[in-house]
Amino acid sequence: MKAVKVEEKAEGDSVCENKIKNESLTTELHFELLKQYTWLASAVIGAVIILIQLKAVELGEDVYISLGLLGLSIFISLIGQDHIVDSLLKGKDIYKTSKILKLIRVTSMLCLALGAGYILSGIF
């Protein structure tokens, strides 16, 4: 009887340890995804600037809209990273904030895709 209780307690401890590991891994993955979106949008902005310098793209409304969307993607990603840090400082777990983080990630990626697509449509 005591052996069964000891095994159940060991299993319970193992489950708690796995939950903590999963939570920290999930937090890191959310943060890294937002960081990657920021880097990617920055790289696309750099490519647009190079295309402007090479006179492959004329500076106009299309470029400004594209740069605005890419900048918005960076801003949203940074807001998402800040939200993660604030949530953790307030003691919330990542699972409670995952819905808003998914919305932030999707919005950032959408702005990135629209910005890159808008500039590409002007080139081809």
UniProtKB/TrEMBL annotation:
Q: Where would you find the membrane-spanning parts of this chain?
A: 37-57, 63-80, 100-120
Species for this entry: Paraglaciecola psychrophila 170
Q: What keywords does the record list, in alphabetical order? A: Membrane, Transmembrane, Transmembrane helix
Its recorded name reads Uncharacterized protein
Instruction: Please give the superkingdom of this protein's source.
Output: Bacteria
